[in-house]
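REVIEWER CHECKLIST
Item 1: Sequence provided? yes
Item 2: Single chain? yes
Item 3: Sequence as submitted:
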Amino acid sequence: PRGGGRLSGPRGDRRQRQRVRGRAGPLPTRDPALGALALAGIAISGYLTWVALSGSETVCGPIGACDAVHASAFGEVGGIPVAFVGLGFFVAVLAGAIAPAGRGAAGRRALVLLCWAGALFSLYLTAAEVFAIGAVCSWCLASALVSGGLLLRVT
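Item 4: Structure as written out by the authors:
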């Protein structure tokens, strides 16, 4: 096509002006950082889901008491392990990031709202670890950092 395939005409000019003014537009076709963060969250929450469902002990490393956190009242939501909820969240973010519908304005708003919800829920759980449980889970902290990174990436 003429013009090297770039958007031209009134619609293309408007989109370009919106980007220049700093308005949030649709997500790029591919965002490797967003995908990598979502995959990291899937790996972390997938491991924690496996631990919760298998009854295994968590390999927590030198910092933290992961099993104490998971065994607490904050380890489940309505009888469902919080790790499984997190797995659903990270899968939804990945799906929203790569789905064609997620690249429009409505899809972007939904993804931003999802990331806000995930980051706020992670913040709530981290506060519960410190103030209510009195124990910290390094895997949970890593998941919270990934959730915060996702929020920063989409906003």
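Item 5: Key structural point noted by reviewer: The first strand starts at residue 76 and ends at 77.
Item 6: Recommendation: ____
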